[in-house]
């Protein structure tokens, strides 16, 4: 069965520090992987996605993610966090014959000034 | 380009009442999705339309939830009667096609509180 695990419910970092949000998935075939961000009262916005090819994917707002097949992971990173990055981040997996996304439970990021 | 529009943004009802949410997808997007996002959880797909046909409604509680997409454009999600556990944000999303690789564009959601 498809599943997505985001082990960290909350993460707090200082502004300017680096960030890594973890995402692990379980899927029977090569997945399509996504990271979304949700600011308070807003819908989800796509940060980046991975389908195939280069395993390091660049996204918007300075985010990147690396697909590691051997670890079934797709962790999101940012070298220097800004206060405006405070939000909730969702990892999602899709593709194959189901054509539907499965979302993780989210990681809420707090940024300290 | 206009995004996905949803209304109302907030709704408070009592249990056993009915409620309806409206969604207008991005123009030209064939696929429309309704998600339920309970506080502290990720969005859960309720129903997916391809044009005006249902592709997946396996997680839609059909005894109380219904949805339609008239003329393959706007969509309405209805709950009748509502239960306390229906309190959640209902997100609408649309995409150009229906493949699992297609980017979904989300509306701002409707926050439902059932008292």
Keywords:
A: 113 residues; mainly beta; six-stranded mixed β-sheet; B: 115 residues; seven-stranded mixed β-sheet
Protein architecture, described:
The complex is a heterodimer of chains A (113) and B (115). Chain A is 0% helix and 51% strand. Chain A is an all-beta fold and 113 residues long. The mean pLDDT of chain A is 91. Chain B is mainly β and 115 residues long. Helices cover 0% and strands 49% of the residues of chain B. In chain B, strands 2, 4, 5, 6, 9, 10 and 11 form a seven-stranded mixed β-sheet that branches. A four-stranded antiparallel β-sheet of chain B has the order 1-3-8-7, with no helix packed on it. In chain B, strand 4 and strand 5 form a beta hairpin. Chain B is globular. The interface between A and B is medium-sized, with 25 and 23 residues.
Work out the number of β strands of chain A.
12
Reading the helices and strands of chain A in chain order gives: EEEEEEEEEEEE
Helix content of chain B: under 10%
Helix content of chain A: under 10%
Radius of gyration of chain B: 13 Å
Indicate the proportion of strand residues of chain A. over 45%
Approximate strand percentage of chain B: over 45%
Tell me briefly what this model is.
The complex is a heterodimer of chains A (113) and B (115). Chain A has 113 residues and is an all-beta fold.
């Amino acid at each position: 069965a498809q599943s997505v695990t985001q082990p960290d419910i909350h993460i707090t970092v200082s502004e300017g520090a680096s960030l890594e949000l973890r995402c692990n998935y379980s899927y029977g075939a090569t997945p399509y992987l996504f990271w979304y961000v949700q600011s308070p009262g807003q819908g989800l916005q796509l940060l980046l996605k991975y389908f195939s090819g280069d395993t390091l994917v660049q996204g918007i707002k300075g985010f990147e993610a690396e697909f590691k097949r051997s670890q079934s992971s797709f962790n999101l990173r940012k070298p220097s966090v800004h206060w405006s990055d405070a939000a909730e981040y969702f990892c999602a997996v899709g593709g194959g014959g189901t054509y539907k996304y499965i979302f993780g439970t989210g990681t809420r990021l707090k940024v300290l000034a | 380009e206009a995004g996905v529009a949803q209304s109302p943004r907030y709704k408070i009802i009592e249990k056993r009442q009915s409620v309806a949410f409206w969604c207008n997808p991005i123009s030209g997007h064939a696929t429309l999705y309704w998600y339920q996002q309970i506080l502290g959880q990720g969005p859960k797909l309720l129903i997916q339309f391809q044009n005006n046909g249902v592709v997946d409604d396996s997680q839609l509680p059909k005894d109380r939830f219904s949805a339609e997409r008239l003329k393959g454009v706007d969509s309405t999600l209805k709950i009748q009667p509502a239960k306390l556990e229906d309190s959640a944000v209902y997100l609408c999303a649309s995409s150009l096609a229906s493949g699992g690789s297609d980017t979904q564009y989300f509306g701002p959601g409707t926050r439902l509180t059932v008292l």
